[in-house]
Amino acid sequence: MTLTDDTPEEKTAVRPVRLGAVGWLRWAWRTLTSMRTALILLFLLALGSVPGSIWPQRGVSDAKVAQYYADSPQLAEWLDRLWMFDVFQAPWFAAVYLLLFVSLIGCVLPRAAAHLRELRRKPPAAPRNLSRLPQHAVLDGPLTVEEAARRLRRLRFRVTTGQDWVAGEKGYLRETGNLLFHAALVGLLVAIGTGALYGYRGNVLVVEGAGFANTVAAYDRYLPGQQVNAESLEPFSFTLEDFQATYIAQGPKRGQALDYSARLAVSDAPGAAERTYELKVNEPLDVNGTLTYLIDHGYAPTFKVTDGKGQVAFEGAVPCLAAQPATFASECVVKVPDALPEQLGLMIAFLPTAVRTHDGEWTSAFPGAVNPVAQVYGAFAGDLGMGNGRPQSVYEIPAEILKEMKPLVMKADPLQVGEKLRLPDGMGTVEFTGIKEWIALQITHDPGRLPALVSAAVATVALVLSLTVRRRRVWVRVGDGAAEAGGLTRTEGGDFGEEFAGIVAALNHGSNPGVKDDR
Protein backbone atom coordinates (compact mmCIF):
# COMPACT_ATOMS: atom_id res chain seq x y z
CA MET A 1 0.00 0.00 0.00
CA THR A 2 1.38 3.44 -0.99
CA LEU A 3 1.39 6.58 1.18
CA THR A 4 -1.42 8.09 -0.89
CA ASP A 5 -3.81 5.19 -0.47
CA ASP A 6 -6.60 5.64 2.03
CA THR A 7 -8.51 2.92 3.76
CA PRO A 8 -12.33 3.12 3.77
CA GLU A 9 -12.15 4.02 7.47
CA GLU A 10 -9.77 6.94 6.76
CA LYS A 11 -11.95 8.22 3.92
CA THR A 12 -14.93 8.21 6.26
CA ALA A 13 -12.97 10.07 8.93
CA VAL A 14 -12.04 13.05 6.73
CA ARG A 15 -15.42 13.47 5.09
CA PRO A 16 -16.94 16.91 6.04
CA VAL A 17 -19.93 16.78 8.32
CA ARG A 18 -23.10 18.32 6.98
CA LEU A 19 -24.77 20.86 9.24
CA GLY A 20 -28.31 20.04 8.31
CA ALA A 21 -31.32 22.29 8.77
CA VAL A 22 -30.98 22.49 12.57
CA GLY A 23 -27.28 23.22 12.33
CA TRP A 24 -27.80 26.02 9.83
CA LEU A 25 -30.54 27.52 11.99
CA ARG A 26 -28.27 27.37 15.04
CA TRP A 27 -25.46 29.01 13.06
CA ALA A 28 -27.80 31.74 11.78
CA TRP A 29 -29.07 32.44 15.30
CA ARG A 30 -25.56 32.65 16.75
CA THR A 31 -24.49 34.97 13.94
CA LEU A 32 -27.53 37.20 14.34
CA THR A 33 -27.16 37.46 18.13
CA SER A 34 -23.43 38.14 18.13
CA MET A 35 -22.14 41.50 19.29
CA ARG A 36 -20.49 42.12 15.92
CA THR A 37 -23.80 41.67 14.09
CA ALA A 38 -25.59 43.97 16.54
CA LEU A 39 -22.99 46.70 15.95
CA ILE A 40 -23.25 46.26 12.17
CA LEU A 41 -27.05 46.52 12.31
CA LEU A 42 -26.83 49.58 14.56
CA PHE A 43 -24.48 51.18 12.04
CA LEU A 44 -26.85 50.29 9.20
CA LEU A 45 -29.77 51.81 11.12
CA ALA A 46 -27.84 55.05 11.56
CA LEU A 47 -26.72 54.95 7.93
CA GLY A 48 -30.29 54.31 6.78
CA SER A 49 -31.46 57.42 8.66
CA VAL A 50 -29.13 59.68 6.67
CA PRO A 51 -31.39 59.93 3.57
CA GLY A 52 -34.13 61.23 5.87
CA SER A 53 -32.03 64.34 6.48
CA ILE A 54 -30.88 64.72 2.87
CA TRP A 55 -34.19 64.49 1.01
CA PRO A 56 -37.51 66.03 2.14
CA GLN A 57 -39.90 63.62 3.81
CA ARG A 58 -43.61 63.24 3.25
CA GLY A 59 -45.61 64.27 6.27
CA VAL A 60 -42.94 66.80 7.21
CA SER A 61 -42.17 68.76 4.03
CA ASP A 62 -44.85 67.81 1.50
CA ALA A 63 -44.38 71.07 -0.39
CA LYS A 64 -40.65 70.43 -0.79
CA VAL A 65 -41.36 66.91 -2.05
CA ALA A 66 -43.71 68.36 -4.65
CA GLN A 67 -41.08 70.94 -5.59
CA TYR A 68 -38.50 68.15 -5.97
CA TYR A 69 -40.84 66.39 -8.41
CA ALA A 70 -41.26 69.65 -10.33
CA ASP A 71 -37.51 70.32 -10.53
CA SER A 72 -36.27 66.78 -11.21
CA PRO A 73 -39.20 64.50 -12.09
CA GLN A 74 -37.14 61.52 -13.30
CA LEU A 75 -34.76 61.56 -10.34
CA ALA A 76 -37.67 62.05 -7.94
CA GLU A 77 -39.44 59.02 -9.41
CA TRP A 78 -36.41 56.80 -8.83
CA LEU A 79 -35.90 58.18 -5.33
CA ASP A 80 -39.53 57.48 -4.54
CA ARG A 81 -39.13 53.87 -5.69
CA LEU A 82 -36.33 53.55 -3.12
CA TRP A 83 -38.52 55.15 -0.42
CA MET A 84 -36.18 58.13 -0.09
CA PHE A 85 -39.15 60.43 0.59
CA ASP A 86 -40.56 57.98 3.21
CA VAL A 87 -37.35 56.65 4.73
CA PHE A 88 -38.71 55.76 8.14
CA GLN A 89 -41.64 53.85 6.64
CA ALA A 90 -39.54 51.98 4.09
CA PRO A 91 -39.57 48.15 4.17
CA TRP A 92 -35.76 48.02 4.17
CA PHE A 93 -35.63 50.37 7.18
CA ALA A 94 -38.18 48.23 9.03
CA ALA A 95 -36.15 45.08 8.22
CA VAL A 96 -32.98 46.57 9.74
CA TYR A 97 -34.99 47.80 12.71
CA LEU A 98 -36.53 44.39 13.44
CA LEU A 99 -33.26 42.50 12.92
CA LEU A 100 -31.50 44.85 15.33
CA PHE A 101 -34.30 44.36 17.85
CA VAL A 102 -33.99 40.55 17.69
CA SER A 103 -30.19 40.70 17.71
CA LEU A 104 -30.07 42.89 20.81
CA ILE A 105 -32.50 40.70 22.73
CA GLY A 106 -30.63 37.54 21.75
CA CYS A 107 -27.36 39.20 22.75
CA VAL A 108 -28.48 40.76 26.04
CA LEU A 109 -30.38 37.88 27.64
CA PRO A 110 -27.54 35.29 27.68
CA ARG A 111 -25.02 37.91 28.77
CA ALA A 112 -27.35 39.12 31.53
CA ALA A 113 -27.70 35.57 32.85
CA ALA A 114 -23.92 35.10 32.75
CA HIS A 115 -23.42 38.42 34.53
CA LEU A 116 -25.84 37.43 37.29
CA ARG A 117 -23.92 34.21 37.80
CA GLU A 118 -20.70 36.21 37.92
CA LEU A 119 -22.14 38.54 40.56
CA ARG A 120 -23.03 35.57 42.77
CA ARG A 121 -19.64 33.91 42.35
CA LYS A 122 -17.04 34.63 45.02
CA PRO A 123 -13.65 36.09 44.04
CA PRO A 124 -11.09 33.35 43.35
CA ALA A 125 -8.56 32.29 45.96
CA ALA A 126 -5.18 34.00 46.08
CA PRO A 127 -2.40 32.57 43.89
CA ARG A 128 0.53 30.97 45.70
CA ASN A 129 3.08 33.40 44.34
CA LEU A 130 1.74 36.99 44.30
CA SER A 131 5.05 38.36 43.04
CA ARG A 132 4.25 37.04 39.55
CA LEU A 133 1.24 39.30 39.22
CA PRO A 134 1.47 42.57 37.25
CA GLN A 135 1.14 44.53 40.49
CA HIS A 136 2.88 43.40 43.67
CA ALA A 137 3.90 45.01 46.96
CA VAL A 138 5.13 43.92 50.36
CA LEU A 139 3.11 45.48 53.14
CA ASP A 140 4.82 47.44 55.89
CA GLY A 141 3.75 45.53 58.95
CA PRO A 142 1.87 42.51 60.20
CA LEU A 143 -1.76 42.23 59.14
CA THR A 144 -4.50 39.80 60.05
CA VAL A 145 -6.89 38.26 57.57
CA GLU A 146 -9.86 39.94 59.27
CA GLU A 147 -8.22 43.37 59.22
CA ALA A 148 -7.21 43.06 55.56
CA ALA A 149 -10.75 42.02 54.62
CA ARG A 150 -12.21 44.96 56.57
CA ARG A 151 -9.91 47.46 54.86
CA LEU A 152 -10.70 46.08 51.38
CA ARG A 153 -14.42 46.23 52.10
CA ARG A 154 -13.96 49.87 53.02
CA LEU A 155 -12.60 50.33 49.50
CA ARG A 156 -15.81 48.71 48.17
CA PHE A 157 -14.24 45.42 47.13
CA ARG A 158 -16.26 42.23 47.21
CA VAL A 159 -14.22 40.14 49.59
CA THR A 160 -13.76 36.47 50.36
CA THR A 161 -11.23 35.02 52.80
CA GLY A 162 -9.24 31.86 53.34
CA GLN A 163 -6.96 30.57 56.07
CA ASP A 164 -4.12 32.96 55.28
CA TRP A 165 -5.38 35.00 52.34
CA VAL A 166 -7.94 37.61 51.31
CA ALA A 167 -9.34 38.06 47.79
CA GLY A 168 -11.14 41.20 46.63
CA GLU A 169 -12.72 42.12 43.31
CA LYS A 170 -14.67 45.09 41.97
CA GLY A 171 -15.55 46.76 38.69
CA TYR A 172 -18.71 44.80 37.95
CA LEU A 173 -20.33 48.08 36.90
CA ARG A 174 -18.46 47.80 33.61
CA GLU A 175 -20.44 44.78 32.46
CA THR A 176 -23.57 46.17 34.15
CA GLY A 177 -23.19 49.36 32.12
CA ASN A 178 -22.62 47.34 28.97
CA LEU A 179 -25.78 45.35 29.52
CA LEU A 180 -27.77 48.45 30.49
CA PHE A 181 -26.60 50.13 27.30
CA HIS A 182 -27.89 47.31 25.13
CA ALA A 183 -31.07 47.02 27.20
CA ALA A 184 -31.59 50.77 26.73
CA LEU A 185 -31.23 50.30 22.97
CA VAL A 186 -33.93 47.64 23.13
CA GLY A 187 -36.05 50.04 25.18
CA LEU A 188 -35.47 52.74 22.57
CA LEU A 189 -36.60 50.42 19.78
CA VAL A 190 -39.68 49.40 21.78
CA ALA A 191 -40.49 53.07 22.41
CA ILE A 192 -40.20 53.86 18.70
CA GLY A 193 -42.37 50.85 17.85
CA THR A 194 -44.96 51.88 20.46
CA GLY A 195 -45.09 55.35 18.97
CA ALA A 196 -45.57 53.90 15.50
CA LEU A 197 -48.45 51.68 16.66
CA TYR A 198 -50.30 53.97 19.05
CA GLY A 199 -49.25 57.39 17.80
CA TYR A 200 -50.25 59.51 14.86
CA ARG A 201 -49.12 62.61 13.03
CA GLY A 202 -50.71 64.90 10.54
CA ASN A 203 -50.15 68.12 8.65
CA VAL A 204 -52.49 71.03 8.21
CA LEU A 205 -52.28 74.50 6.69
CA VAL A 206 -54.11 77.25 8.57
CA VAL A 207 -54.67 80.81 7.34
CA GLU A 208 -54.89 83.77 9.71
CA GLY A 209 -58.40 84.06 11.06
CA ALA A 210 -59.20 80.40 10.38
CA GLY A 211 -59.44 77.61 12.93
CA PHE A 212 -58.59 73.95 13.30
CA ALA A 213 -60.28 71.15 15.23
CA ASN A 214 -58.33 67.96 15.88
CA THR A 215 -60.42 65.61 13.80
CA VAL A 216 -59.39 63.32 10.96
CA ALA A 217 -61.35 65.30 8.37
CA ALA A 218 -59.54 68.54 9.24
CA TYR A 219 -56.06 67.26 8.29
CA ASP A 220 -54.47 67.87 4.91
CA ARG A 221 -52.35 64.77 5.51
CA TYR A 222 -53.02 62.23 8.25
CA LEU A 223 -50.81 59.25 9.15
CA PRO A 224 -52.26 57.16 12.00
CA GLY A 225 -50.65 54.21 13.74
CA GLN A 226 -52.16 50.78 13.27
CA GLN A 227 -53.89 50.91 16.65
CA VAL A 228 -55.24 54.46 16.26
CA ASN A 229 -58.84 55.30 15.38
CA ALA A 230 -60.82 58.53 15.12
CA GLU A 231 -61.73 58.41 18.82
CA SER A 232 -58.05 58.33 19.79
CA LEU A 233 -57.49 61.96 18.82
CA GLU A 234 -57.31 64.55 21.57
CA PRO A 235 -60.43 66.78 21.12
CA PHE A 236 -58.78 70.21 21.15
CA SER A 237 -59.20 73.13 18.76
CA PHE A 238 -57.64 76.51 18.11
CA THR A 239 -57.91 79.63 15.97
CA LEU A 240 -54.92 81.33 14.36
CA GLU A 241 -55.38 84.93 15.42
CA ASP A 242 -52.12 86.34 14.10
CA PHE A 243 -48.76 85.35 12.65
CA GLN A 244 -45.64 87.48 12.70
CA ALA A 245 -42.32 86.84 11.01
CA THR A 246 -39.44 89.24 11.66
CA TYR A 247 -36.42 89.66 9.40
CA ILE A 248 -33.08 91.46 9.41
CA ALA A 249 -33.63 94.70 7.49
CA GLN A 250 -30.05 95.94 6.98
CA GLY A 251 -26.56 94.63 6.44
CA PRO A 252 -25.10 91.56 4.74
CA LYS A 253 -27.70 89.29 6.38
CA ARG A 254 -30.62 91.34 5.11
CA GLY A 255 -33.71 89.20 4.71
CA GLN A 256 -32.60 86.50 7.14
CA ALA A 257 -35.37 85.41 9.48
CA LEU A 258 -35.07 86.36 13.16
CA ASP A 259 -38.21 84.92 14.70
CA TYR A 260 -41.59 83.37 13.92
CA SER A 261 -44.54 83.69 16.25
CA ALA A 262 -48.14 82.52 15.87
CA ARG A 263 -50.77 83.62 18.39
CA LEU A 264 -53.38 80.91 18.94
CA ALA A 265 -56.66 80.92 20.83
CA VAL A 266 -56.72 77.35 22.15
CA SER A 267 -59.60 75.34 23.59
CA ASP A 268 -58.30 72.15 25.23
CA ALA A 269 -61.67 70.39 25.05
CA PRO A 270 -65.15 71.05 23.63
CA GLY A 271 -66.76 73.75 25.75
CA ALA A 272 -63.55 74.61 27.62
CA ALA A 273 -62.51 78.23 28.05
CA GLU A 274 -60.08 79.54 25.46
CA ARG A 275 -56.49 80.34 26.36
CA THR A 276 -53.92 82.27 24.39
CA TYR A 277 -50.74 80.49 23.37
CA GLU A 278 -47.77 81.88 21.46
CA LEU A 279 -46.55 79.15 19.13
CA LYS A 280 -42.89 79.28 18.10
CA VAL A 281 -40.60 76.98 16.14
CA ASN A 282 -39.07 75.26 19.18
CA GLU A 283 -42.01 75.80 21.53
CA PRO A 284 -44.84 73.47 20.43
CA LEU A 285 -48.35 73.56 21.78
CA ASP A 286 -48.87 70.62 24.17
CA VAL A 287 -52.40 69.41 24.86
CA ASN A 288 -52.32 66.25 27.00
CA GLY A 289 -49.32 64.85 25.14
CA THR A 290 -50.41 65.90 21.64
CA LEU A 291 -47.82 68.34 20.26
CA THR A 292 -48.41 70.96 17.58
CA TYR A 293 -45.25 72.20 15.83
CA LEU A 294 -44.80 75.23 13.60
CA ILE A 295 -42.92 73.95 10.55
CA ASP A 296 -43.54 76.42 7.70
CA HIS A 297 -45.26 79.65 6.74
CA GLY A 298 -46.16 81.74 3.73
CA TYR A 299 -48.48 84.39 2.35
CA ALA A 300 -52.17 84.04 1.57
CA PRO A 301 -53.33 87.11 -0.39
CA THR A 302 -57.07 87.64 -0.56
CA PHE A 303 -58.97 88.11 -3.82
CA LYS A 304 -62.48 88.90 -4.97
CA VAL A 305 -63.47 87.46 -8.34
CA THR A 306 -66.61 88.77 -10.03
CA ASP A 307 -67.79 86.78 -13.05
CA GLY A 308 -69.26 87.97 -16.34
CA LYS A 309 -72.78 87.99 -14.86
CA GLY A 310 -71.75 90.45 -12.14
CA GLN A 311 -71.93 87.81 -9.38
CA VAL A 312 -69.18 87.31 -6.78
CA ALA A 313 -67.94 83.86 -7.77
CA PHE A 314 -64.99 83.72 -5.34
CA GLU A 315 -63.85 85.70 -2.33
CA GLY A 316 -61.22 84.69 0.20
CA ALA A 317 -57.60 83.96 0.96
CA VAL A 318 -55.43 81.88 -1.38
CA PRO A 319 -52.36 80.15 0.14
CA CYS A 320 -49.29 80.69 -2.02
CA LEU A 321 -46.16 78.56 -2.23
CA ALA A 322 -42.79 80.29 -2.12
CA ALA A 323 -41.01 80.04 -5.47
CA GLN A 324 -38.00 81.96 -4.07
CA PRO A 325 -37.66 81.19 -0.34
CA ALA A 326 -35.06 83.93 0.19
CA THR A 327 -37.48 86.69 -0.83
CA PHE A 328 -40.80 84.82 -0.57
CA ALA A 329 -41.76 85.56 -4.14
CA SER A 330 -44.70 83.17 -4.32
CA GLU A 331 -47.11 81.60 -6.76
CA CYS A 332 -50.83 81.04 -6.28
CA VAL A 333 -53.65 79.42 -8.22
CA VAL A 334 -57.27 80.53 -7.99
CA LYS A 335 -59.89 78.15 -9.39
CA VAL A 336 -63.38 79.59 -9.85
CA PRO A 337 -65.69 76.73 -10.90
CA ASP A 338 -68.86 78.78 -10.18
CA ALA A 339 -68.02 81.60 -12.59
CA LEU A 340 -70.39 82.32 -15.48
CA PRO A 341 -70.55 82.10 -18.42
CA GLU A 342 -67.36 80.01 -18.13
CA GLN A 343 -65.20 78.70 -15.34
CA LEU A 344 -62.06 80.70 -14.60
CA GLY A 345 -58.54 79.65 -13.69
CA LEU A 346 -56.06 82.27 -12.48
CA MET A 347 -52.31 81.92 -12.05
CA ILE A 348 -50.95 84.68 -9.82
CA ALA A 349 -47.51 85.72 -8.62
CA PHE A 350 -47.40 87.38 -5.19
CA LEU A 351 -44.42 89.63 -4.45
CA PRO A 352 -44.09 90.82 -0.81
CA THR A 353 -41.63 93.62 -1.64
CA ALA A 354 -42.06 94.27 -5.35
CA VAL A 355 -39.29 95.93 -7.35
CA ARG A 356 -38.83 96.27 -11.08
CA THR A 357 -35.63 94.93 -12.62
CA HIS A 358 -33.65 96.53 -15.44
CA ASP A 359 -35.28 94.29 -18.05
CA GLY A 360 -38.76 95.37 -16.96
CA GLU A 361 -39.65 92.20 -14.99
CA TRP A 362 -41.08 92.29 -11.48
CA THR A 363 -39.51 90.46 -8.56
CA SER A 364 -39.37 90.58 -4.75
CA ALA A 365 -36.39 92.10 -2.95
CA PHE A 366 -37.31 91.28 0.67
CA PRO A 367 -39.37 88.54 2.39
CA GLY A 368 -41.38 91.02 4.47
CA ALA A 369 -44.54 92.62 3.05
CA VAL A 370 -43.09 96.10 2.42
CA ASN A 371 -44.56 96.72 -1.05
CA PRO A 372 -46.93 93.81 -1.72
CA VAL A 373 -48.35 93.32 -5.20
CA ALA A 374 -50.18 90.53 -7.00
CA GLN A 375 -49.49 89.93 -10.70
CA VAL A 376 -51.86 87.82 -12.77
CA TYR A 377 -49.55 86.12 -15.23
CA GLY A 378 -52.16 83.75 -16.58
CA ALA A 379 -55.97 83.91 -16.74
CA PHE A 380 -57.90 81.17 -18.53
CA ALA A 381 -61.55 80.39 -19.24
CA GLY A 382 -63.00 76.94 -19.77
CA ASP A 383 -63.65 73.65 -18.05
CA LEU A 384 -61.39 73.18 -15.00
CA GLY A 385 -62.07 69.43 -14.98
CA MET A 386 -63.26 69.51 -11.39
CA GLY A 387 -66.43 67.61 -12.13
CA ASN A 388 -64.81 64.40 -13.40
CA GLY A 389 -64.21 62.98 -9.92
CA ARG A 390 -60.43 63.09 -10.13
CA PRO A 391 -58.69 64.90 -7.26
CA GLN A 392 -56.68 67.99 -8.11
CA SER A 393 -54.03 69.97 -6.29
CA VAL A 394 -55.16 73.38 -5.10
CA TYR A 395 -51.72 74.75 -6.01
CA GLU A 396 -51.75 74.05 -9.75
CA ILE A 397 -53.93 73.61 -12.81
CA PRO A 398 -53.01 70.36 -14.60
CA ALA A 399 -51.19 70.97 -17.87
CA GLU A 400 -53.55 68.74 -19.87
CA ILE A 401 -56.54 70.80 -18.66
CA LEU A 402 -54.78 74.11 -19.18
CA LYS A 403 -54.22 73.24 -22.85
CA GLU A 404 -57.99 72.97 -23.40
CA MET A 405 -58.79 76.33 -21.77
CA LYS A 406 -58.93 79.71 -23.53
CA PRO A 407 -56.23 82.20 -22.50
CA LEU A 408 -57.58 85.58 -21.42
CA VAL A 409 -54.62 87.42 -19.86
CA MET A 410 -50.91 86.72 -19.97
CA LYS A 411 -48.70 88.71 -17.57
CA ALA A 412 -50.85 91.66 -16.56
CA ASP A 413 -49.54 94.68 -14.68
CA PRO A 414 -49.10 94.15 -10.91
CA LEU A 415 -52.02 95.00 -8.66
CA GLN A 416 -51.71 96.94 -5.44
CA VAL A 417 -54.10 96.17 -2.59
CA GLY A 418 -57.53 97.48 -3.62
CA GLU A 419 -56.85 97.47 -7.38
CA LYS A 420 -58.79 95.46 -9.96
CA LEU A 421 -57.95 93.67 -13.19
CA ARG A 422 -60.74 93.61 -15.75
CA LEU A 423 -60.77 90.38 -17.76
CA PRO A 424 -61.40 90.63 -21.54
CA ASP A 425 -64.53 89.45 -23.37
CA GLY A 426 -66.71 90.44 -20.41
CA MET A 427 -65.47 87.54 -18.28
CA GLY A 428 -65.43 89.60 -15.07
CA THR A 429 -62.88 91.21 -12.74
CA VAL A 430 -60.18 90.16 -10.28
CA GLU A 431 -59.62 92.39 -7.24
CA PHE A 432 -56.62 92.15 -4.90
CA THR A 433 -58.27 92.87 -1.54
CA GLY A 434 -55.63 92.23 1.14
CA ILE A 435 -52.90 90.08 2.65
CA LYS A 436 -52.99 87.30 5.18
CA GLU A 437 -50.39 84.73 6.14
CA TRP A 438 -50.62 80.99 6.56
CA ILE A 439 -48.73 78.54 8.74
CA ALA A 440 -48.09 74.84 8.24
CA LEU A 441 -48.38 72.72 11.35
CA GLN A 442 -47.37 69.21 12.20
CA ILE A 443 -49.50 67.65 14.93
CA THR A 444 -48.10 64.53 16.56
CA HIS A 445 -49.05 62.20 19.35
CA ASP A 446 -46.25 59.83 20.31
CA PRO A 447 -46.73 57.76 23.50
CA GLY A 448 -43.19 56.43 23.08
CA ARG A 449 -41.59 59.86 23.31
CA LEU A 450 -40.94 59.87 27.08
CA PRO A 451 -39.79 56.20 27.21
CA ALA A 452 -37.44 56.97 24.31
CA LEU A 453 -36.00 59.91 26.25
CA VAL A 454 -35.50 57.78 29.38
CA SER A 455 -33.91 55.01 27.31
CA ALA A 456 -31.54 57.47 25.66
CA ALA A 457 -30.52 58.89 29.06
CA VAL A 458 -29.94 55.39 30.47
CA ALA A 459 -27.92 54.45 27.40
CA THR A 460 -25.70 57.51 27.85
CA VAL A 461 -25.01 56.80 31.54
CA ALA A 462 -24.48 53.11 30.84
CA LEU A 463 -22.03 53.87 28.04
CA VAL A 464 -20.00 56.07 30.38
CA LEU A 465 -19.85 53.24 32.93
CA SER A 466 -18.82 50.63 30.36
CA LEU A 467 -16.03 52.87 29.05
CA THR A 468 -14.61 54.14 32.36
CA VAL A 469 -14.96 51.28 34.86
CA ARG A 470 -12.40 48.43 34.88
CA ARG A 471 -12.62 44.99 36.42
CA ARG A 472 -9.71 44.43 38.85
CA ARG A 473 -8.70 41.92 41.51
CA VAL A 474 -6.55 42.27 44.59
CA TRP A 475 -5.18 39.54 46.86
CA VAL A 476 -3.47 39.73 50.22
CA ARG A 477 -1.43 36.90 51.76
CA VAL A 478 -0.72 37.01 55.46
CA GLY A 479 2.32 35.19 56.83
CA ASP A 480 4.29 35.06 60.04
CA GLY A 481 4.99 38.73 60.77
CA ALA A 482 4.71 39.79 57.10
CA ALA A 483 2.06 40.36 54.45
CA GLU A 484 2.08 40.98 50.72
CA ALA A 485 -0.45 42.15 48.16
CA GLY A 486 -0.87 41.54 44.46
CA GLY A 487 -3.32 42.77 41.88
CA LEU A 488 -4.29 42.76 38.24
CA THR A 489 -6.90 44.33 36.00
CA ARG A 490 -9.16 42.15 33.89
CA THR A 491 -9.70 44.80 31.22
CA GLU A 492 -7.23 46.35 28.87
CA GLY A 493 -6.36 50.02 28.88
CA GLY A 494 -5.64 52.38 31.73
CA ASP A 495 -2.97 52.28 34.41
CA PHE A 496 -3.81 50.17 37.43
CA GLY A 497 -0.49 50.93 39.11
CA GLU A 498 -1.57 54.27 40.61
CA GLU A 499 -4.78 52.83 42.04
CA PHE A 500 -2.93 49.77 43.34
CA ALA A 501 -0.49 52.05 45.17
CA GLY A 502 -3.46 53.69 46.88
CA ILE A 503 -4.86 50.27 47.83
CA VAL A 504 -1.49 49.28 49.34
CA ALA A 505 -1.45 52.53 51.32
CA ALA A 506 -4.96 51.80 52.60
CA LEU A 507 -3.89 48.29 53.64
CA ASN A 508 -0.85 49.72 55.42
CA HIS A 509 -2.54 52.58 57.21
CA GLY A 510 -6.20 51.63 57.41
CA SER A 511 -7.35 54.56 55.23
CA ASN A 512 -7.65 55.10 51.50
CA PRO A 513 -5.33 57.96 50.52
CA GLY A 514 -4.72 58.20 46.81
CA VAL A 515 -7.47 55.77 45.76
CA LYS A 516 -9.21 57.63 42.94
CA ASP A 517 -11.70 55.01 41.82
CA ASP A 518 -13.98 53.46 44.43
CA ARG A 519 -16.27 51.77 41.90
Automatic annotation (TrEMBL):
Q: Cellular location of this protein? A: Membrane
Q: Where are the transmembrane segments?
A: 38-55, 92-113, 179-200, 450-469
Q: Does the keyword Transmembrane helix apply?
A: yes
**Which InterPro entries does this chain map to?**
Cyt_c_bgen_Ccs1/CcsB/ResB (IPR023494), ResB-like_domain (IPR007816)
Q: Where is the ResB-like domain?
A: 35-501
**Family matches, as Pfam families:** ResB
Q: What superkingdom does the record give?
A: Bacteria
For this UniProt record, give its keywords in alphabetical order, as a comma-separated list. Answer: Cytochrome c-type biogenesis, Membrane, Transmembrane, Transmembrane helix
Membrane-topology annotation of the record: Multi-pass membrane protein
Is Transmembrane included in the keywords of this UniProt record?
yes
Q: Know the name of this protein? A: Cytochrome c biogenesis protein ResB
Recorded source organism is Planomonospora alba
Output the lineage of the source organism.
Answer: Bacteria, Bacillati, Actinomycetota, Actinomycetes, Streptosporangiales
